[in-house]
Design goal:
Layout (H helix, E strand, L loop, with lengths): L1 H19 L6 H30 L3 H12 L6 H7 L4 H13 L3 E5 L7 E5 L1 H22 L4 H18 L1
Antiparallel strand pairs: 1-2
Length: 167
């Protein structure tokens, strides 16, 4: 697999150099840095998706909803939950229904507005998302342990710099 990815990147480098470098002289940054970033993200995401699916019977989106709820002390309205996520409200409604059917969340009446229902983790949901998060930490640790501590620190600083500049 490692050689496949490196060969893939090398193939793209050659293609860009031979076909697009003149028209897009800055494309080397895309191929040398952007493409490897995308591929690393893809590989890590695939590992997490497989783990969520096989071990926890969750999609990545379901995990994200559960993690968002875990990170909030108080139950959330579906609107606040939706605003914290990157889904359409229709997508959020479907996710919440699935999670409720799996008994991972519960709907509770709002104290402020009795007509509204808030979303909270169930006890089972809290346990499951905590366990799944532990596995996410393991996957990320496994991936990042391929780098020396000094390389990890450099990567962290470079990513912080990019995020600061982009936001």
């Amino acid at each position: 697999m490692k050689q496949d990815m490196l060969a893939f990147i090398e193939e793209k480098r050659r293609f860009f150099k031979e076909n697009l470098a003149e028209q897009y002289p800055d494309s080397t940054l895309l191929v040398n840095i952007g493409l490897p970033l995308v591929l690393v993200n893809k590989l890590v995401s695939e590992k997490k998706e497989k783990m969520f699916s096989t071990k926890y019977n969750l999609s990545t989106s379901e995990f994200d909803v559960l993690m968002t709820l875990l990170c909030h002390i108080e139950p959330m309205s579906p609107t606040n939950l939706y605003e914290s996520m990157i889904f359409s409200s229709g997508g959020m409604t479907k996710l919440l229904k699935k999670l409720e059917e799996k008994k991972l969340i519960e709907r509770i009446p709002s104290r402020k507005d009795k007509r509204s229902l808030l979303v909270a983790l169930s006890g089972e949901g809290k346990k499951l998302v905590s366990d799944a998060f532990g596995d996410v930490v393991k996957i990320n640790t496994e991936v990042l342990s391929k780098l020396e501590e000094s390389e990890q620190a450099t990567l962290e600083n470079l990513l912080k710099k990019l995020l600061t500049e982009l936001s």
